[in-house]
Amino acid sequence: MGITKQTLRELLSKGTTLESIFEFKEGQDCLIFKAEKFKDTEDIIYIPDITLNEIEVTRPLDAEGIDHVIEHCCTNAEVMNNWLKFSLTLMTGSIHVFRIFWMVMLKKNFRRIMDVL
Fold first, then answer.
1. From the DSSP assignment, how many helices (H) and strands (E) are in the chain?
2. Taking 80 as the threshold, does the pLDDT of residue 104 lie above it?
3. d(CA 17, CA 108)
4. Which has the least CB within 10 A, 27, 55, 76, 113?
């Protein structure tokens, strides 16, 4: 059973701690939450580096702390949107590099090309 951001907000507002809600595990040199399965729901599936993002997991949080936690929680849709944006950025950069490469190649070889034609 997953937890939505709204449900998490309600639980944290009642004084429940993050460590009693989620099972955090070691990531790449950090502590994270990652759901066992990515579901097409509004459930939280990922919370990044707890230490780096200064997320308190052992104590109850005030309203500001709850907002901070919610900002760092990712749903499936958010993860997919971020991945898509990242992929498009890479593709755009690759297309730009590709265009520059061919412009340089054509400029360098323009006379040879014209001789053949």
1. 4, 4
2. no
3. 64
4. 113
Predicted confidence (pLDDT) at residue 90 exceeds the cutoff of 60 = yes
Q: To which residue do tokens 């990242």 refer?
A: 86
CB 18 within 8 A of CB 11: no
**Distance, CA of 98 to CA of 82 (rounded, Å):** 24
Lookup: tokens for 114: 């014209």
Q: Which residues contact 83 (CB under 8 A, 6 or more apart)?
A: none
Q: Could you give the C-alpha distances from 100 to 81, 91, 92, 106, 109, in angstroms and in order? A: 29, 14, 12, 10, 14
Give the tens place of pLDDT for each residue, 47-65.
999 999 999 999 999 999 9
Where residue 15 falls (left for φ over 0; alpha for ψ -120 to 50; beta otherwise) is left
